[in-house]
Amino acid sequence: MAERELIRVEDLTIRYVTDDGIVEALNGVSLSLKEQHTLGLVGETGAGKTTLAKGIMGLIPDPPGEVIKGKVIFDGQDLLKVGEVKLRAIRGNQISMIFQDPMTSLNPVMTIGDQIMEVIRTHNKKLSSREAVAAVRNMLETVGISADRIEEYPHQFSGGMKQRVIIAIALACNPKLLIADEPTTALDVTIQAQVLEMIRDIKARLHTSMLLISHDLGVVAQNCDHVAIIYAGEIMEYGSLRDIFKTPRHPYTIGLLDSIPSLAKEVRRLKPIKGLMPDPTDLPRGCKFHTRCNYAIPPCAEGVPGLINPDDTPETEHLVRCIRVHGLSAPREP
Asked: 199-207 long-range contacts, Cβ below 8 Å, gap at least 24?
């Protein structure tokens, strides 16, 4: 039985008009996610990861944000055209998002129970008060918080417990798609592992698909089926987890992987990618990465390359945005 596509983003282009210039945040991004799969979106700060997530959710602030073109096809309908009323019915119900910072995502003057119940009652108006409270208590237990803490406030919880509350809010209506935007950024390593394991368990139990946004390749390796590498608002490489980690073909992907400390080899220094992300108000012509690329040649600065299959094999989903892809195979040690 063929796996069903849940969401498809086509040529999504988003910009922000500011006093300092036009910020080209997303530049023709296309990707897809199948049911019950997890797609990792990886890139540096400012690459466009959160803008893509907010674009899918319909949360781009206007002004200054503008969706220039593109489609977001979810369950057969374009979310960019459904209208605000229908989008509100989908958002939080069929598509939910875990935002980056749990410290600022919760309302400090509402109990955590009321904040979870707000989502449940918004999308399930037929529930009685008793049924809604039971649903909140069950959701708290699901994320590892005692139901007896239903009347407590955010300041009474640690960072890790606040993140669990955020996850409870996101999963309260059993969404088909969960967007997790750097869900463990503000947490220490031990709590990160606990939260990620909990997300994996709940995702499997509820049969939820997930878009996991991260700059941590270790987190992506443990949680994702497919990976998209994004840079300056463009997808540079897309493929299965094995494609990206074992046979990376884009210089940016290779650079990201080479900058990770190796447990198998003894090295004196790490190998960082030279330079900095380009200014999104003044992106370079041609390939956006060519100013930092060790393999760049003059044609790289002339035109924007398309995504191509590096091995010319129809059965693979591996795609790379590089005109030199056929000369840059870089198999990695298992």
From this structure: 199/167, 199/223, 202/142, 202/143, 202/167, 202/171, 203/38, 203/178, 206/171, 206/174, 207/35, 207/36
Of 227, 171, 209, residue with least CA distance to 36 = 209
Partnered with residue 42 across adjacent β-strands are 214, 229
Whether 248 and 240 have beta carbons less than 8 Å apart is answered as no
Query: In which region does residue 232 sit, left (phi positive, over 0), alpha (psi from -120 to 50) or beta (all else)?
Result: left
Confidence tier at 328 by pLDDT (50, 70, 90): low
Cα distance between residue 182 and residue 28, in whole Å = 23
What is the CB-side half-sphere exposure of residue 109 using CA atoms within 13 A?
0
Higher pLDDT, 192 or 240: 240
Residue closest to 9 by CA, chosen among 66, 65, 67, 62: 67
Under DSSP, is residue 95 helix (H, G, I), strand (E, B) or coil? strand
Question: Residue 92 is encoded by which pair of tokens?
Answer: 């939080």
Confidence of residue 330 (pLDDT cuts 50, 70, 90): very low
C-alpha 29/C-alpha 69 separation (Å) is: 10
Ranges of H-type helices in the chain: 49-57, 84-90, 102-105, 112-123, 129-142, 159-171, 189-206, 217-223, 241-246, 251-258
Cα–Cα distance list, 120 to 93, 106, 108, 113, 130 (Å)? 9, 16, 19, 11, 12
Distance between the two ends of the chain, CA-based, in angstroms?
Answer: 31
Task: Give me the pLDDT at residue 152, please.
Answer: 94
CA 131 – CA 136 distance, rounded (Å):
9
Closest CA to 15 of 201, 233, 218, 176: 233
Contact of 208 with 175, CB cutoff 8 Å = yes
**C-alpha to C-alpha distance for 223 and 231, rounded to whole angstroms:** 21
Q: pTM of this prediction?
A: 0.89
Per-residue pLDDT for 265 more than 80? no
| Bridge partners for 15 per DSSP | 24, 66
Instruction: Retrieve residue 229's tokens.
Output: 């590498």
For 50-99, what is each residue's pLDDT tens digit? 999 999 999 998 889 999 999 999 988 999 998 888 998 899 889 999 88
